[in-house]
Amino acid sequence: MNKRKVLIIYTGGTIGMVRNHISGGLVAFDFNHLFEQIPELRRLDVELTSISFEKPIDSSEIHPGVWKALASLIHENYDLYDGFVVLHGSDTMAFTASALSFMLQGLKKPIILTGSQLPIGTIRTDGKENFITAVEIAAMADSKGFALVQEVAIYFEYSLYRGNRTSKVSASEFEAFKSGNFPELARAGVEIKFDEHALYRSNLDDLLYFPEIDNRIGHISLYPGINFEFYSSLFDVNLLKGIVLSTFGSGNGPNDPKMIQLMEQYIANGGHVLNITQCWSGAVQQGKYDASKQFLNIGVLGGGALTTEAAITKMMCLLGKGIDDQSFRKEIVRNLCGEM
Predict the structure, then answer these.
(1) How do 104-105 and 208-209 pair as beta strands?
(2) Which residues of 240-252 are buried (b: 16+ CB within 10 A; e: fewer)?
(3) What are 206-242's pLDDT values in tens digits?
(4) Does 122 participate in catalysis according to the annotation?
(5) Which of 11, 14, 92, 247 is catalytic?
(6) Tens digit of pLDDT for each residue in 232-241?
(7) Domain of residue 137, CATH code
(8) 340 is a domain residue
(9) Which pTM value belongs to this model?
(10) Among 27, 71, 123, 313, which is most buried by a count of CB atoms within 10 Å?
(11) Residues 95, 309: contact at Cβ < 8 Å?
């Protein structure tokens, strides 16, 4: 049988760093010498190709242009490879994973994002195991030769998660990511054990590519004592087309007349407000308590169990499609690729 082919795309981040023996500083290593840094990859029965961004990007500098470049690279090479591994800084990895899931719908091949908390050139790095296992998962096929994973996922510290269900929860632990409302897709121990019931399968026949993103959205996180006078300028449809509102518990907020007035007028003018919970797990249920009925009554959209990362990127991607307001309101609350 022919070897499975995996394309590695290095965007930047801690995982690709090694220490310069002269300066002592951390620098990105040359991925053309991949096997020199990680000789264990030779033992995998996988044909590897790597592409590096010309200038590595720190994860805090990630923006929609990077998502577009990544999605374009994968789309252009989709028929040439069996799977893709994206090496990425961990801080914004969940945003990128979510964005890619909305930009590339109908996947029949895996896109696995991974990174590390320590540079790959350090003795105690978590990068090697993350990298090797991500490549192994990206190359896995079932008994019929179809990719075992057919979605955008994050692999980090022995766990594989659905990308658009995942958030970074620690800046210092190796187990940096969690999925509060969805089980692990797989757990890597002596063997890699998959939860086959959790793996996503699209009902689309072909890959749909949505390259455009509209980042004219805002994000407001409620807190006790919030003064909406300070945020009034955001509720302008000429400035922002959508606002993600992070609320308390199952979608609750204070009975603030100014807040309701601003939102009601904004929605009437064609703006979209999406209600998501600040909680790590659980979901928005508008109307469950009186404190959320006010949102329901004025047309705020309930985001269910959407993560912050998925809510923001989904809104950007739907706005980028240029669909009408009615279609947007239907699509934002519909499960498109396993995010809800």
Answers:
(1) antiparallel
(2) bbbbbbbbbbbbb
(3) 999 999 999 999 999 999 999 999 999 999 999 999 9
(4) no
(5) 14
(6) 999 999 999 9
(7) 3.40.50.1170
(8) no
(9) 0.94
(10) 313
(11) yes
